[in-house]
Amino acid sequence: MPGQLEDGEHVRVSSQQRREQLIEAALVVAKRDGVGAVSTRTVAAEAGATPGIVHYVFASMDDLLRAMIARMAERYIDTVTDVAVSGDHDVTSLLEQSSSHLWSSVESDPDGHLLTFEVAAHALRTAGFNDLAQWQYETYRMTARRVLERVAEVCEVEWTLPLDSLARMLVVINDGVVLSWLVDRDSEKAREVYAAFIREVASYARPLRETAG
């Protein structure tokens, strides 16, 4: 269990520590049993706490779910952008590095990536949560845009398609590849699609020197 909590006086845990532990517990429950299983009782049990602690830290289950989804988005950003620039600085190789880093996380944590689809569907179906699904995908697009901006800067190129459109393409294709893989677990086919798409994206890069003069 992720950092069990207790109600006794012998354990002193800051509100921030409790918040972090409960968010992690919610993620464990959601990944294992589905987002619909996340409740005050199940999160408290996973964290080794009482429901009272959950109510103390989070004003409502909505607040806890929002915090859980925010944590998922943060980890997505870290996974996609935490790629060291190495080797030849060409567009294709940098896109391949980012894609490979992301794909490794998919294969190592399929339940976590399945959860990203589940929380989006849950948000769309739950009154008052639609904005959360929008925010989730805005975060994905923002992250894709950051990757494209970094590639353009390092490789000294510009994109011939609007950056927002290209970022949306990356998110849409990635969603399709990941969801398809979650169904059939055919990693070879998934990598083939990624490779073909990377070549397509790279074709929209134009060296800056072509427009400088």
Offer a few descriptive terms.
single chain, about 210 residues, mainly alpha, Arc Repressor Mutant, subunit A, Tetracycline Repressor, domain 2, two-stranded antiparallel ribbon, 2 strands, about 75% helix, DNA-binding, DNA binding
The outline comes out as: elongated
What is the CATH topology descriptor of the largest domain? Answer: Tetracycline Repressor, domain 2
Query: What is the annotated CATH architecture of the largest domain?
Result: Orthogonal Bundle
Give the number of domains: 2
Question: What's the pLDDT, averaged over the residues?
Answer: 89
How far apart, in Å, are the first and last alpha carbons? 61 Å
Q: Indicate the CATH class of the largest domain.
A: Mainly Alpha
Which class of secondary structure composition applies to the elements? Answer: mainly alpha
The low-confidence runs, each spanning 5 or more residues with pLDDT under 50, are 6-11
GO molecular function, one term: DNA binding
DNA-binding region: 39-58
Domain HTH tetR-type: 16-76
Keywords: DNA-binding, Repressor, Transcription, Transcription regulation
